[in-house]
Amino acid sequence: MREFGHGERNEDGPAPERKGSEVTRREFLEMGVAATLAAGASEIAWAAQTKSEVPRRTLGRTGEKVSMVGLGGYHIGSQSDEQESIRIIRTALDSGINFLDNCWDYNGGQSEVRMGKALRDGYRQRAFVMTKIDGRTKKAAAEQIEESLRRLQTDHIDLLQFHEIIRMEDPDRVFAAGGGMEAAVEAKKAGKIRYIGFTGHKSPDIHLKMLETADAHQFHFDSVQMPLNVMDAHYNSFGKKVLPVLVKKGIGVLGMKPMGAGIILRSKTVEPVECLHYAMSLPTSVVITGCDSVAMVEQAVSAAKTFKPMSETQVAALLAKTKDAAKNGEFEGYKTTTNFDGTAHNPQWLG
Fold first, then answer.
1. What are the phi and psi torsion angles at 107 (to 5°)?
2. Cβ distance 175 to 141 under 8 Å?
3. Is-contact 234 328, C-beta < 8 A?
4. pTM (global) more than 0.90
């Protein structure tokens, strides 16, 4: 089964610096990066609670403390050895990562099934579990919520998100009478889920429409997930268009694809830790990265523990290296192609 793109493949080694056009001060400001760094920095708890912990940040208005790096869910179900999947999840939790990403449709449900097994023996109490559903109708959403609860072997999901808000009609479908939001709100009232958010990787304009539609229905999302990386800053940017809105509204920011599902590393412009540190320097609550080995978990944990907020000068230098490679979206296929759109290839999931 193909990768939907929420995981990262970090196996590429150090990449040589690309010599290209520098990012000017004006361009840097127009990207919105400087403004977003300034707006969000004061709201983020940068320091770890103790020296041995992965630093925690606050998830929007929820007050929840979540690890600044989160474990992506896709690769959890793609391991040939189920026990290796369990080792990866438990290593993450033992190392101080408490934010776990997942989705109802990942690997035909195997990502949730394996996570449910890993969360036995007291591990559930140490985890902030997020999963996603595709259902746009109340019936489909309710069924997927129940199935996720069974697979994850839990009586509640900490954060439920509407997955792949990638079409202009998706917001209206979710909020329509008999739409998926009704099922989510009912599940929340019943104590089956605690918080509600949405995700998408296609267009910042669609994210903005989802937020506007929520406002029209007097609904406040607890979180929003979107690609935030060194390429995004240059092309159809979520960081420029959506991130400032989330900061203003006090919505938890979940950054995904810090390495663009590993594709950004193929540009040979940046190294994995640079990608993680850039995304962490934005006002993100969590930066979600896929790990298909214990070594990758250790790399993510190390990146979090060694993190220091990047200065404007450091960010500008990093973006200068990716400017030319990023200009036409070549390394952001989730924006420019349907290769990463699970629901486009499986419309029945929408209900």
1. 55, 40
2. no
3. no
4. no
